[in-house]
Amino acid sequence: WDLGEWSECSKSCGLGMQHRQVLCRQVYANRSLTVQLHRCQHLEKPERTSTCQLKICSEWQIRTEWTSCSVPCGVGQRTRDVKCVSNLGDVVDDEECNMKLRPNDIENCDMGPCAKSWFLTEWSDRCSAECGSGVRTRSVVCMTNHISSLPLEGCGHNRPTESTPCDNGPCLGKVEWFAGSWTQ
């Protein structure tokens, strides 16, 4: 039997086929001549085809659904798990898959505009002056959806006041004893 070279594998990855030429040849001195196949039938005939696999085929697989958006309002991000998986079902290095075909594993999500509003504390219990005119104070904060504070300009121009007048009544003359130095 005279065996030719194997052809290239029919698939670039995964299971494919390859072929080769198998001839029956008769040798005379320094020459050989191709003869009919039945002339070699007493010899075991070599295979003309064979399976081949140049490498394992791998493809991108989306393994999880998108997560919830990272923010309750405004623009945030969401993610999902994307893996390169072989035709045997094993997770392999990303380089085994075509990076141009890789599905996104992160994307922006828009949850709509954030509601902004003023949040206020109660007025302070005490007036700043023990007598006469003074002020009571409170804190004023601009918040979005009750979670994150913004610069005060973020809630617009209708900012509530942070102080209010108070009066603890007239200051009465305070009388005290004063002792001077002893005389000689």
UniProtKB/TrEMBL annotation:
**GO terms of molecular function:** metalloendopeptidase activity
Q: Does the keyword Chloroplast apply?
A: no
The cellular location(s) given in this protein's UniProt record come to: Secreted
SUPFAM superfamilies given in the database record: TSP-1 type 1 repeat
One of the GO biological process terms:
proteolysis
Q: Which Pfam families match?
A: TSP1_ADAMTS (PF19030)
One GO CC annotation = extracellular region
- PROSITE patterns in the cross-refs: TSP1
Keyword Oxidoreductase applies: no
The UniProt keywords, alphabetically, are: Repeat, Secreted, Signal
Q: What name does this protein carry?
A: Thrombospondin type-1 domain-containing protein 4-like
Q: Which organism is it from?
A: Notechis scutatus (mainland tiger snake)
Q: Gene encoding it?
A: LOC113430076
